């Protein structure tokens, strides 16, 4: 089967390998690193699961690109508009200045010309007056009776002189006027050119105006001395009046020109100011908008940073938050739309639901998308986490919390024992260490808390639920065995959690121990000894001989110092449940690890769906303690139910709040339980097929031998697949594991087991996820079922019902009877008439019936869970301690048709 590397798949998805690995971990798909290869089945499962993520991401990238492009275009357009506006403004200013200076010059010129003309006219008037006076005096001096020739000739002489003088003066005046006029007229000419000014027009005579209309500036200017011409054609005695008129005319003209230009200037200036202020208001507005945009962007970036710091998807911050499994009505309320609107959309999506029906994640997202709203579906895990903020000044150093991990049999338990012994020996001599899932040891007056996680999976599961419990991982590697698969797994888990690794090279007492080889091998996995320039501290130890233990503890403390671990002890406690169980005498008992605040007896807390007042608190030695500080692990009594390992706990000030929250969570869990997604089963395949046009039957096949898988694949290949395509999405030898169930749930597959059984929590998970597990011991029966299901003929006429389970604790050989298994019934109620399967390490080793069932010396018909009994199995003498006896009945099921 073709395999795809995580790195190439990540590349294909456009995400980092780390991101993809996180998704894989969430899906419980075993992949350790970017170079891990994934089977086809997993790849298609991942693709299916991540399809919405990938689509959303692609859409987002596209939208982002588009937005960036638009923003760039907008910016470009704004820039161009601003440049254009600036250019126009500069142009306008230049033009304005030019106009102002021209107007001012013209006004000045006109005023000067008028003044000069007035002065000249005044002078002339005075001279004329003087001359007239002189002439009159002369006339008066000649006697009236003397009319002789001498007097007449004298008068003629005077008259002649007068004519010559006048002509001379006229010539002078004309010359002067000719010299002055072009200057004054230039100013007027410009004004009249620009605006056809009234002043210039009033200053010019009609014919002159006509000529000035067709002629250029200078000829028009030549006409300026018109008053002089009028003067010449007028009577001499009107010369003084004429000059006055000239004077008035020019001053009026100058005044008018000045007033006109002042008004124009003022008007234009006002308009310019108004325009400028309008533009500057526009610019101010633009600047304000830009500032606001920048501030919003900064706020957005800060929000994103904070979200990332809290491990939250920044996109989810603005989204409307709804709980997983939200009902139509609740969603409508959350989105503030009418429920009918949602019902209508659901109907159009082909999924009619009523107000109170719960919606799947996909539907919620589709509807929200349809409504153009962003939505964040809050999973129960997310709902059950709390977030806190501590002022840095309230933080105080806290002890490190350590987890020991490593390959099976490399000595984790022995090392923990040796460590506990050391810690206990130094401080609690004689104390008996009891198992509470965590232990605290003291070294050099400093505390270290060790948390026992039963396996790497648990570590990851806790991490997946947001439980950040471990500060340091101690990786145990046997010096005689070196790096093994689970060692690598542990490294990957630690790295994924970002927890530093301290390596304990164990079993150094063994003759074939080779600690250096361990170092060498670990380098390949990025765990490099400090002495070789790496980041990891290595310590050689022997758990058996208890050597190097102190050194290891000191190294852990050293590593902790680097981490500068701190917490606020002076607040309400919060932390995680490490282990929890129901104790017959004491009720629910939970081991909690405090990671913030101080937990006191009497405190009320909520953990997952449980709550209660801490009735008593015990340390690892079973001593009652009154309080637990950050990094302390204690057992607590007083909860109303058993919480789950990995649940976060938090102390509440008010007991009512605690109860409300716990009850709210339980209610939600019950609702979810009711609304669980139903997966396809062989019995419902055909009906689902016709309803939803399901044309595929996905199978996960697990078998005891490879041959069975091949035989099934072969037989299925020969089936008619024109209507239903049968896909074996995953097949392997071995018991049915949780991962198989996860895979089947994700791909709507049925699990087929040949001679194998569900292992560990696989059955519970399958029940929870509604995944059908069909187990067979004969291959043709499986083929028959699948074929019947394919054509819709499979009618469940017989069904296997599990009645109970017993664990073999001891075996006895009874003469004449044979081997008897001393058992404890762990589940259900086993009846003597039941069929029984013997399951060893997840594999069915025998299928038959009971030969005997006894309690003490009596034969009994049935035994309930919690009771011991002796069981004999027909024709089977190979029972071993640890075997599981699975009792079942085959019942007739009425046909549904
Ligand atoms: N010689 C020697 N044997 C050791 C040492 N540490 C552990 N062992 C032995 O190795 C075997 C496995 O040790 P455990 O402590 O059970 O190993 P483990 O890693 O906890 O094993 P699991 O819990 O099954 O994963 C036991 O037989 C121990 O006695 C050691 O330092 N030296």
Automatic annotation (TrEMBL):
Tagged with keyword GTP-binding: yes
Sites where the protein binds GTP: 406-413, 452-456, 506-509
Cytoplasm as UniProt keyword: yes
SUPFAM superfamilies registered for this protein in UniProt: Initiation factor IF2/eIF5b, domain 3, P-loop containing nucleoside triphosphate hydrolases, Translation proteins
Region of interest called G-domain, as start-end residue ranges on this chain: 400-548
Region (Disordered): 62-153, 166-300
Main location: cytoplasm
Alphabetical UniProt keywords: Cytoplasm, GTP-binding, Initiation factor, Nucleotide-binding, Protein biosynthesis
Record's compositionally biased regions (Basic and acidic residues): 62-100, 117-139, 166-187, 245-282, 291-300
Pfam family membership, one: EF-G_D2
Domain Tr-type G: 397-566
Signal peptide interval: none
Compositional bias ranges of the Low complexity kind: 103-116, 197-216
PROSITE patterns, per the entry: G_TR_2
NCBIfam families xref list: IF-2, small_GTP
Alphabetized HAMAP family for the sequence: IF_2_B (MF_00100_B)
Biological function: One of the essential components for the initiation of protein synthesis. Protects formylmethionyl-tRNA from spontaneous hydrolysis and promotes its binding to the 30S ribosomal subunits. Also involved in the hydrolysis of GTP during the formation of the 70S ribosomal complex.
Family designation: Belongs to the TRAFAC class translation factor GTPase superfamily. Classic translation factor GTPase family. IF-2 subfamily.
Protein name: Translation initiation factor IF-2
Lineage, uppermost ranks: Bacteria, Bacillati, Actinomycetota, Coriobacteriia, Coriobacteriales
């Amino acid at each position: 089967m073709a395999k795809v590397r995580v790195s190439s798949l990540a590349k294909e998805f456009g995400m980092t390998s780390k991101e993809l690995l996180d998704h894989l971990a969430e899906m419980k798909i075993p992949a350790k690193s970017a170079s891990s290869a994934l089977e086809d089945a997993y790849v298609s499962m991942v693709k299916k699961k991540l399809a919405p993520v990938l689509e959303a991401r692609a859409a987002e990238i596209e939208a982002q690109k588009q937005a960036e492009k638009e923003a760039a275009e907008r910016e470009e357009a704004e820039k161009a508009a601003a440049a254009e506006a600036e250019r126009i403004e500069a142009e306008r200013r230049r033009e304005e200045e030019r106009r102002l200076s021209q107007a001012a010059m013209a006004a000045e010129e006109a005023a000067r010309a008028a003044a000069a003309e007035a002065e000249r006219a005044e002078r002339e008037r005075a001279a004329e007056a003087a001359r007239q006076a002189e002439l009159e005096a002369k006339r008066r001096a000649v006697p009236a009776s003397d009319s002789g020739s001498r007097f007449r000739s004298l008068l003629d002489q005077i008259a002649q002189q007068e004519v010559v003088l006048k002509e001379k003066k006229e010539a002078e005046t004309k010359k002067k006027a000719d010299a002055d006029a072009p200057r004054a007229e230039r100013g007027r000419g410009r004004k009249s050119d620009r605006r056809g000014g009234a002043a210039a027009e009033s200053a010019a005579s009609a014919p002159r105006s006509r000529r000035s209309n067709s002629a250029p500036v200078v000829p028009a200017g030549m006409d300026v001395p018109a008053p002089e011409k009028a003067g010449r054609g007028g009577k001499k005695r009107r010369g003084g009046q004429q000059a006055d008129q000239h004077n008035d005319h020019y001053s009026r003209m100058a005044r008018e020109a000045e007033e006109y230009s002042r008004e124009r200037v003022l008007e234009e200036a006002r308009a310019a100011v108004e325009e400028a202020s309008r533009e500057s208001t526009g610019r101010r507005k633009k600047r304000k908008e830009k500032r606001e945009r920048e501030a919003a962007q900064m706020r957005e970036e800060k929000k994103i940073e904070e979200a990332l710091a809290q491990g939250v998807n920044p996109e989810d911050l603005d989204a409307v938050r709804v709980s997983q499994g939200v009902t139509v009505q609740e969603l409508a309320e959350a989105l503030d739309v009418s429920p009918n609107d949602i019902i209508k959309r659901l109907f159009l999506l082909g999924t009619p639901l009523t107000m109170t029906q719960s919606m799947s994640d996909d539907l919620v997202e589709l509807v929200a998308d349809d409504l153009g709203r962003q939505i964040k579906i809050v999973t129960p895990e997310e709902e059950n986490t709390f977030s806190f903020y501590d002022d840095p000044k309230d933080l105080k150093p806290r002890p490190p919390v350590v987890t020991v991990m490593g390959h099976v049999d490399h000595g984790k338990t022995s090392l923990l024992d040796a460590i506990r012994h050391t810690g206990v020996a130094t401080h609690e001599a004689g104390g008996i260490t009891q198992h509470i899932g965590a232990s605290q040891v003291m070294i050099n007056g400093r505390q270290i808390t060790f948390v026992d996680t039963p396996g790497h999976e648990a570590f990851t599961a806790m991490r997946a639920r947001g439980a950040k419990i471990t500060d340091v991982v101690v990786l145990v590697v046997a010096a005689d065995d070196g790096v093994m698969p689970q060692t690598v797994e542990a490294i990957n888990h630690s790295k994924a959690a970002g927890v530093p690794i301290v390596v304990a090279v164990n079993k150094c007492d063994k003759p074939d121990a080779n600690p250096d080889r361990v170092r060498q091998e670990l380098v390949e996995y990025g765990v490099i000894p400090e002495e070789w320039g790496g980041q990891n501290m290595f310590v050689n130890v022997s758990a058996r001989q208890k050597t190097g233990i102190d050194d290891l503890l000191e190294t852990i403390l050293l590593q902790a110092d680097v981490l500068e671990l701190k917490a606020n002890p002076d607040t309400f406690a919060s932390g995680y449940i490490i282990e929890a169980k129901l104790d017959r005498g004491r009720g629910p008992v939970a081991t909690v690890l405090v990671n913030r605040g101080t937990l006191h007896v009497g405190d009320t807390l909520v953990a997952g769906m449980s709550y209660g007042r801490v009735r008593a608190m015990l340390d690892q030695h079973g001593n009652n303690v009154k309080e637990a500080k950050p990094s302390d692990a204690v057992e607590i009594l007083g909860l109303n139910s058993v919480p789950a390992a990995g649940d976060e706990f938090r102390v509440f000030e008010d007991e009512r709040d605690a109860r409300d929250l716990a009850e709210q969570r339980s209610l939600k869990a019950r609702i979810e339980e009711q609304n669980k997604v139903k997966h396809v089963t062989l019995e419902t395949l055909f009906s689902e097929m016709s309803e939803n046009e399901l044309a595929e039957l996905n199978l996960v096949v697990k078998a005891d031998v490879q041959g069975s898988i091949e035989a099934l694949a072969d037989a299925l290949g020969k089936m008619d697949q024109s209507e239903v395509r049968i896909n074996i999405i995953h097949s392997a030898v071995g018991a049915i594991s949780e991962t198989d169930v996860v895979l089947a749930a994700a791909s709507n597959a049925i699990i087929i087991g040949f001679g194998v059984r569900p292992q560990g929590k696989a059955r519970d998970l399958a029940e929870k996820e509604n995944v059908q597990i069909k187990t067979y011991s004969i291959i043709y029966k499986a083929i028959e079922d699948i074929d019947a299901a394919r054509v819709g003929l499979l009618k469940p006429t017989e069904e296997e019902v599990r009645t109970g389970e017993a664990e073999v604790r001891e075996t006895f050989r009874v003469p004449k009877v044979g081997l008897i298994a001393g058992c404890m019934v762990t589940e259900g109620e086993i009846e003597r008439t039941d069929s029984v399967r013997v399951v060893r390490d997840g594999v069915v080793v025998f299928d038959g019936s009971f030969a005997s069932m006894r309690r003490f010396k009596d034969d009994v018909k049935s035994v309930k869970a919690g009771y011991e009994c002796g069981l004999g199995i027909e024709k089977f003498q190979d029972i071993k301690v640890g075997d599981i006896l699975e009792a079942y009945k085959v019942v007739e099921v009425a046909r549904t048709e």
